[in-house]
Amino acid sequence: PKEIFLRDYKPPSHSFAKVELAFDLREQGTTVRSIISAVPASGSTGELFLHGDESVKLDGVTVNGSAHERYERGSKGLTLKDLPNEPFELSITTTIEPQENTALEGLYKSSGNFCTQCEAEGFRRITFYQDRPDCMSTFTTRIEADKAKYPVLLSNGNLIDSGELEGGRHFTVWEDPWVKPCYLFALVAGNLGMIEDKFKTMSGKDVTLRIFTEKHNIDKCAHAMTSLIKSMKWDEETFGLEYDLDLFNIVAVDDFNMGAMENKSLNIFNSRLVLATPQSATDADYAAIEGVVAHEYFHNYTGNRVTCRDWFQLSLKEGLTVYRDQEFSADMNSRGVKRIGDVSRLRTAQFAQDAGPMAHPIRPESYIKMDNFYTVTVYEKGAEVVRMYETLLGKDGFRKGMDLYFQRHDGQAVTTEDFFAAMSDANGADLSTFKPWYSQAGTPRVTANGSYDADAKTFTLSLTQVVPKTPGQDTKIPVMCPVAVGLVGPDGKDMELTLDGKSVGTTTVLRFDKAEATYTFTGVEAKPVPSILRNFSAPVRLTTNLTQDDLVFLMANDSDAFNRWEAGQTLLRTLLLDLIKGDGQYKMDAAITTAMRAIIAGAKEPNADKAFIARAMMVPSAGELSDMLDEGTVDPAKIHEARTFVMKTLATELRADLEATMKANSAEKYSNEPADRAARSLKNTCIGYLSYLDDAAIAAMTYERFASADNMTDKIAALNSLSDKECDERIKAFAEFYEEWNKDPLVMNKWLGLQAMSNLPNNIANVKALMEGPAFDIKNPNKVYSLIGGFCASSVNFHAADGSGYEFLADVVIKLDDLNGQVASRMVSAFTRWKKYEPSRSSAMRAQLERIRAKKGLSENVFEIVSKSLE
Ligand code: DPP
Ligand code: ZN
């Protein structure tokens, strides 16, 4: 396999002014004809390389209408030779077999319908083309198919022609006036139902909005449609960005490697991110749908109108678009709770990646398979980097930067440097020390030590930073970290801050870009407690000299919701890490029980933020704790035991509070109002705690709630609370759930996932049985993510001391590798951090990685992850 480097970037040898595609869709042997208006760049050698997968059959090439035979076909594509030195018309005909495509890239079939997925490099499985994002062109697409089987024929842009053909066939022609790279091309042909709505844009244009699904799911699209309309409005209000065509389509398909895809005016979605009713989807699903519909819509500008020069720039569109969808969801819901959720995910998944063998900067330097770089680093850390511009420049400054970015680059394929330049130039700001965020991997470690001088009435904050080594990057330089700081006075109120003789409000952003720096606040009348890194203003690992009393004080008083939550998490993390590293004599810290009691009591106050309280009650996850332990020491069984001890002790000591809060927040009837959703999450958090008690009455009560739930959120919460318990109620509940829902594949994914994650001893046998059962299908990515991905999340069973969990995963990866390299490489990622574990587990994981590496014909996707892990 060949590694591709950023430093080797060269502009394309030809530009494509116009592309016409014609698809003749068949049950076997679909033909694709392309007519490309090619323009040689100056200095052209008369050679043009077109990417093309080995699965594509080449039927013929013509240049200016005559057959052209001077070409070489290699494993990666076609080199055309002796081409004219002036613009010419290139035509290529290929035959492909979408019905046999299990990789789900290019053109393939899902539930009998045709659909496409071209990002990153799927277009080369359709035809020969310059499959690179800096080759932008307008596309016209003609689709022909059997009318009875495929009444709906869609592509990008506007419908300009359609009609009947002989033999029961029909056709449509679509024209997309906006230039785009081929990764944004899409085609759908199927027997689909549709809902329609309308949006009037800020300048008064009417846009038709359509969501297509299989007909039996048509009543499940309303929430996605509402989310789309909210997104369109938000992007106008927040960034002045107006939709640019008369039609916007979303199509939901069941077999999809990723979440969704932003193809120009024809978004294609994994059906789990479209379909929802209160009975079949949870509150978390509703939130995910809202966020992803927005994300794909927002790509219309950040990604489509301005795209990436090459795939190393992926964060240019993904980091920015994740930032935009995070802001949208924060505006639609509770801002503080949204931020807490996003940071938790970043810390659990991204910090771990940044500390392991797959660590890479948000702008990677090289890749073997681009699919492997659609990572939490490029996406979530990338979004944090964008958020830091906003923190440094302010909301208005950020908007100025965005405006300049579009003004300069609309219709272009650009780089993160261009985005950086737009932000700096629009604000006349010197951000040079910010740049290493793009090129350095690893999470900076920041320490903050505060001290109060009562005589001088000053508070001094000393900061240090170190960026750790990562593979291939031994030396690092300090990077600008915006550190948002407030000082909370003894009365619990924010103090007015004076720094360098200037009054700076109650929260100030320190531009910390050295290895060490000291900041002295003056006029500090009483000893404060500092609130550092408010709203998680930089993606760093922070250590402070705050005491337990300080943290309890911040939990109760900090005006910053994130740091109020973080104070509690810091207390819990410290306790848990002590227990995990200790001698096995578990002892609870009374201060934590008291603090938790106070949090729960807060739910009784008139304007309580119950969603926040539910989050504050959560104990750090096994993944987050594992990330904080030293290499070579992690024992998942110990982490599980320590967490269980803490949960069980809190449940025992706070039982009355938990039961009262659960009851007070149990609704008669389902409602989707934010206050009801918040109460629901609080109630279900209480049930989750209570399930740690060995009490038959709790199991009975949980089953009762399961059986009588009128919505999926409550049903899943109850089922989850039973899933680690050895009891009849668990068996009954899972069986009844199957009876009720086995016809709904999305709901069955939840059923598979919950069983797979269970920490009941020897549950691997159950998982293996489920794999053979009717609810599972190894060709469907969602099912693999639920069952196999779920299993990898079980501390007890995936990490079973006898290595059986690891062997099982390797068996599955080897099987998946022949079907779908992308899905296989996501699954094998559970092994990447093998060095983190204690010796017996790490050597067992390593042995499985070696076994996978030895497989004949291993996909490039899996090869890359496995070989980097073993380095
Ligand atoms: N469709 C994926 C996303 O939107 C990749 N672009 O993130
Ligand atoms: Zn995206």
Automatic annotation (TrEMBL):
Domain Aminopeptidase N-like N-terminal: 80-184
Gene3D superfamilies: 2.60.40.1840, 3.30.2010.30, Neutral Protease Domain 2, Peptidase M1, alanyl aminopeptidase, C-terminal domain, tricorn interacting facor f3 domain
Domain Peptidase M1 membrane alanine aminopeptidase: 224-435
Keyword presence, Phosphoprotein: no
Cofactor: Zn(2+)
Domain of life: Eukaryota
Domain Peptidase M1 alanyl aminopeptidase C-terminal residues, every copy: 549-871
Residues annotated as domain Peptidase M1 alanyl aminopeptidase Ig-like fold: 442-544
Keywords: Aminopeptidase, Hydrolase, Metal-binding, Metalloprotease, Protease, Zinc
Gene Ontology biological-process annotations: proteolysis
Entries under InterPro entries matching the protein: Aminopeptidase_N-like_N, Aminopeptidase_N-like_N_sf, PepN_Ig-like_sf, Peptidase_M1, Peptidase_M1_dom, Peptidase_M1_pepN, Peptidase_M1_pepN_C, Peptidase_M1_pepN_C_sf
Molecular function via GO: aminopeptidase activity; metallopeptidase activity; zinc ion binding
Keyword Membrane on entry: no
PANTHER family per the UniProt record, alphabetical: PUROMYCIN-SENSITIVE AMINOPEPTIDASE
Family statement drawn from the similarity comment of this UniProt entry: Belongs to the peptidase M1 family.
Name used for this protein in its record: Peptidase M1, alanyl aminopeptidase
Organism: Ostreococcus tauri (Marine green alga)
